[in-house]
Amino acid sequence: MTVEVRTSRDRDEFSRALYGIWQYFSAPPSDEQLDRWLSWVGLERMHAALDDGEIVGGAGSISFELSVPGGSLPCAGVTVVGVYPTHRRRGVMRELMRAQLDDAHARAEPLAALWASEETIYGRFGFGMASWVGEIELRRESGGFARPVERRGSVRFVEPDEAAQLFPPLWEALRVQRPGMFSRTPDWWKTRSLRTPDEEKAKPRRYAVVEADGEVWAYAIYKVDPGFEAGVSTSTLEVVEAIGADPQATAELWRFLLDIDLTATMKVRLVPPDHPLFVLLANPRRARYRMGDGVWIRLVDVGTALSGRAYLGGGSVVVELRDEFCPWNAGRWRVGDGRSERTNEAAELALDADALGAAYLGAISFAQLRDGLRVEELVEGAVTRADAIFGWRPMPWCPEIF
Hints:
Layout: E1 3-7, H1 11-22, H2 31-40, E2 46-51, E3 54-68, E4 71-83, H3 92-106, E5 111-115, E6 128-129, E7 132-139, E8 154-157, H4 160-177, H5 186-193, E9 206-212, E10 215-225, E11 228-229, E12 232-233, E13 236-244, H6 247-258, E14 265-271, H7 277-280, E15 290-293, E16 295-299, H8 302-307, E17 316-322, E18 331-336, E19 339-342, E20 349-352, H9 353-359, H10 366-371, E21 375-377, H11 382-390
C-alpha cells in the first residue's frame, strides 16, 4: 500500500481527516464543531493520509508559544491524530508524523508537543514524556487547611465576556513561572476555554474571580453535577481551571472552591505533583491523587530548543544524540553556560531523542532516565552534572489538553 500524505484542501477533506480520531469518541463532527477546529488548526496544518484517493487518517497541529524554563519558544501543538481502523498497522501513522515534523521544521518551530491518548505511540517518533499531572477526588469534609488562611480578597462571579478580559493576564503570568504552558489566542479563550460545550449545557460552567486592592488576584472555572440521595447532597464540583497570581491568591481561591455549599465531592484534573494544594490541605492523602503523564515534548530543532531555555547549574555536559526520525538533530551537543552548540568533544552521555524530550522541561531527571536504561553515562558524574544543569522548579504544568 502506498499512502499519500498532504494538507487538507477544503472543508470536506478537513472533516474526513479529523474523523480519523473523532470516530473513536463520537459521531462525525457537527458544523459548529468543525468550524471551531478549522479556526484552531486551519486547512494548512491538517494533514490527511490518503489510500487510492480516499482519506484514511489525519493529524493536525496548532501554532503557539510554549513556555520553557526561563523563556518561551514557537511550538507545534500536535493534536487530533488518528488512523481509520481499516488501515491500522500499515505505516499510516508514521507517514502522518513524518509530514507533521517536517512541516514544523520548515516553519522554524523548534518544539513539538502533544497529549498522548496512548502512551506507547509517540516515543518512536522522538517524543518524550516531559511532565506529570494527576487527578484529585476530595470529599468536602476532608477539605480543611493545615493552617487558617486570613482572607484579604473578595470573590465574585463574572460572565464569559468579562472573563475574556480578566483571565488572560493571570494565565500569561503563570506561563512566565511554569514551563509547559501554551499561549492562548483571544479566539481560543472565546471558543474553547470560556465556552460551555453543547454536551455540558445542562451543567454550565461558572466563572469566578478573587479580587483585592482593585486587582484580579485569581480565577476559577468550575461546574457542578448535582444530585441527592436519601435527602443528602451527592453533588460533585469539577474544577476545570483554577489559577492564582501568588500563594495568597491561590490559597484564597481554593478556600472558596472547597467551601461551596451542597458539594459532596470535589474533582480536579491535570494537577501537577508540586501544586500548593497538597500542603495547604490538612489531610492531603484524602485527595486520592492519581498521577499520570502530562505533556510530551519533541525537540524538532535541537540547537534552537536547547539554546532557547535557561539553565540553573553551571558547567556543561556533552551528549551524543541519536535521532533516526529527525536525523538533522543527530550528533554531539555541548550544553551549558546558557547555550548549546555542536561539538567534536568526547561524549559524556548518550541518549535517543525521546529521552532528551523527556528531560527538556526539567520534570524527568537524567538520573531517572539512566536508571530506566534510557541514558548511557559514558563519563562518571555526567548524569549528576546534567541534572544540575537541566533541573528546574517549579515543575512543568499544562492545565489544559489541546
